[in-house]
Write a structure and sequence with these properties.
It is built from 15 helices and 13 strands. The chain has helices at about 25-35, 80-95, 115-125, 140-150, 170-185, 205-215, 245-255, 295-305, 315-325, 325-340, 345-350, 370-375, 390-395, 395-400, 445-455; strands spanning about 50-55, 100-105, 130-135, 155-160, 190-200, 220-225, 270-280, 285, 355-360, 380, 385-390, 405-410, 410-415. The structure holds iron/sulfur cluster. Its cofactor is [4Fe-4S] cluster.
């Protein structure tokens, strides 16, 4: 792991509680500060954040070649539910109801299903959305059925060649796994998301993979995440061939249509590229093809928004916009009908579905850009409040060794990740201590290094 945490003190969590009156204001100001709050920007305008990760464990049943965890992460204990509930309260304080909470890790399915059920219920109670982010290995049909019954909204399966699953030699091979996972979640009322890391060894396969995903009618959201030099992964710098432009081109090639990734913005353009498509019977059409209409609809929706505090209820706002601006609503409706008609022969082969396509450009740990972190739409809940995911990953051990304060009916307690239970004192763990860092609990680069040192003795 790069020893860069000491140079990152400028990236501090936002505090456990939000003290302002407009929850969208911090993101809006962050985007304004870097010239990214234009007419096509949706972040900070309609929602205070895109999503917040709640890491429920640092354990994982894989050891990906581009893992964002730190070498020492798996030495730590899982946070007790009381700690996770306190972090959920902090997320709610900052972003209010409607925010998407990602139950993640490590792999969250290594926690007891009862713990995840309790978290789903609490997220529901707070009026937020929940998404299980998993490699899918332990997410059986029975497991997902229980979580869906507890109120889980979304499940995101991350599958790609960085995971080195035994017996799979290409992304095309891995489509068998993707199909199996989609089938497990089918009919449970969950929105299905599919995540893929784009790296040097699979870039050439992205068009074919994008085509495969386009043709999965149950998949509502597709995310391509570009290789980033952060965490314990043994692959490091991103190859020059992987750029936002090259990934957009590869995805467009797969969808076999222009996708207009620049029409609507979700946060900083260097971080995120987003588009929305209609699909049917092996064809796709971009919904954002009318570049003049998109900012007009965004402006009209903003004008009818009376709730500056959190997420705008989009259906009610569309209805309200239609009543106030019927001509614009008619133009938007005509555009949508045109998109459906352009699906052509696909309409004979399948139902029309909407799919969101996302390209995410995480930063390298030693090259964080301040303005992007200040305008981040993808946060992690820490002991001291939400923090940009890129900043968090660059200094994960600092956050893992920061104790959580838990105020409960039995008074004030502390939890730190090197100790199993709550305690009366906020003692800090020393993750370099070989007694709590035996080699079998290391992964990634540090384990590889220590193994090499042992081998040469
Ligand atoms: S996590 Fe990183 S790449 Fe993603 S939006 Fe935040 S700052 Fe940008």
């Amino acid at each position: 792991m790069k020893d860069i945490a000491s140079g990152l003190s400028r990236f501090a969590p936002a505090g456990r509680t939000f003290h302002g009156s407009d929850r969208r204001a911090p993101l809006r100001e962050g985007l304004r500060g870097c010239g990214e709050y234009g007419a096509s920007q949706t972040a900070g305008r309609f929602y205070p954040i895109a999503c917040v990760a709640l890491e429920v464990t640092q354990r994982c049943n894989l050891d990906c070649t581009l893992c964002y965890l730190s070498d020492r992460a798996e030495m730590t204990y899982d946070p007790p539910l009381s700690v996770l509930f306190a972090r959920l309260a902090s997320i709610h304080s900052h972003y209010g109801p409607g925010v998407s909470v990602q139950l993640t890790g490590g792999d969250p399915t290594l926690r007891k299903v009862e713990d995840l059920e309790a978290l789903c219920r609490e997220i529901n109670r707070l009026g937020m959305r929940s998404c299980l982010m998993t490699n899918g290995i332990r997410a059986s049909r029975a497991f997902l059925t229980r979580l869906a019954a507890a109120g889980l909204n979304d499940v995101a399966f991350h599958v790609d060649m960085t995971q080195e699953r035994a017996g799979f030699h290409s992304e095309a091979d891995l489509n068998r796994v993707r199909r199996k996972y989609i089938a497990r979640a089918r009919g449970l009322g969950l929105r299905i998301l599919i995540n893929t890391t784009v790296f040097g060894e699979n870039l050439a396969e992205i068009p074919a993979l994008a085509r495969f995903l386009r043709d999965q009618p149950e998949v509502a959201f597709v995310s391509f995440q570009m290789q980033a030099d952060t965490g314990r992964g043994v692959l490091r710098e991103r190859p020059d061939a992987i750029t936002q432009a090259s990934v957009m081109r590869a995805v467009e090639q797969g969808y076999a249509t222009p996708l207009h990734f620049d029409a609507a913005s979700v946060g900083h353009a260097s971080c995120n590229r987003y588009t929305s498509v209609l699909t049917a019977g092996g064809r796709a059409v971009s919904v954002l093809s009318n570049r003049r209409l998109v900012p007009r609809v965004i402006a009209a929706l903003e004008r009818v928004d009376r709730n500056e505090d959190a997420h705008i209820p989009i259906r009610a706002s569309v209805l309200s916009m239609a009543i106030r601006q019927p001509l614009l609503a008619l133009r938007a409706a005509a555009h949508l009908v045109g998109c459906v008609m352009r699906l052509g022969s696909g309409l004979l082969r399948g139902r029309v579905r909407r799919q969101a396509v996302f390209i995410h450009n995480f930063m390298a740990a030693d090259a964080l850009e301040d303005d992007r972190c200040a305008a981040c739409v993808f946060m992690v809940a820490t002991a001291k409040g939400p923090l940009s995911m890129c900043a968090h990953n660059a200094q994960r051990d600092v956050h893992l060794t920061t104790p959580d304060r838990v105020d409960g009916p039995m008074g004030r307690h502390w939890w730190n990740a090197a100790v199993k239970d709550l305690s009366d004192r906020p003692d800090l763990p020393d993750l370099d201590d070989p007694n709590i860092a035996p080699i079998k609990r290391l992964k990634g680069q540090l384990r590889a290094r220590r193994k090499n040192v042992k081998g040469t003795r």
